[in-house]
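ok so for the tutorial part 2 we go from a plain amino acid sequence to predicted structure tokens. step 1 is just haveing the sequence, like this:
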Amino acid sequence: MKKQSHSSSDSSSEQKPELSILSILVSSLFIGLIAGAGTDKSHILPVALITAIVLFATRKKIAARDIATQSSNDLPQDLKPTEDYYAWPEPGQFAFAVAAESYQGAIHQLAQKNAIGPDEGSDPKAHILKAYLIPDNDNPYDSNAVRIDIDNRTIGHLNRGQARSFRRRLDEKGIPNQITTCNVVITKNGEITDKTVSYGVRLDIQPFE
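step 2 — the prediction. this is what the tokens look like for a chain of 209 residues:
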């Protein structure tokens, strides 16, 4: 599964090219023509020139905004609220550990977004959330893959053996290939460096045989 995580990381880090000079000129002329048609034709060139200067100066910000929009659009939009899916029984032991080394960035964001206050538990370092267990049938590396998502962020995958056992468990329940949910605990393990924190992920689900 490491190979897949590298692929996902590489694709998410691709940068969209900045606006080209040609696209800036075409857009500026188009805006100038619209302005001239609405007022005076003598305004076409001044408006087009000013627009070109503005677009050129802000081309990096525009490209960055497009990348953020594209990333948002790439997130799964068909997930229903967790209560609409089968929820696995809660043994309350959080005994199933997930290999999460490749997803520390996403986990850190979740930990910050869902910080637990002092009155919400005895351990302020623990974060209990609801996760989606999603059969990833289109995974190019393992057709039995199962990924773990929280708030449209992937925080881990089951390994090959665990994924096969999990799929069998879905079949036994009569819900093959269905999305299910369970509680997840995110725990702050410690600081690797002054600015880097290590997190652990455990599922509240019966261990797979």
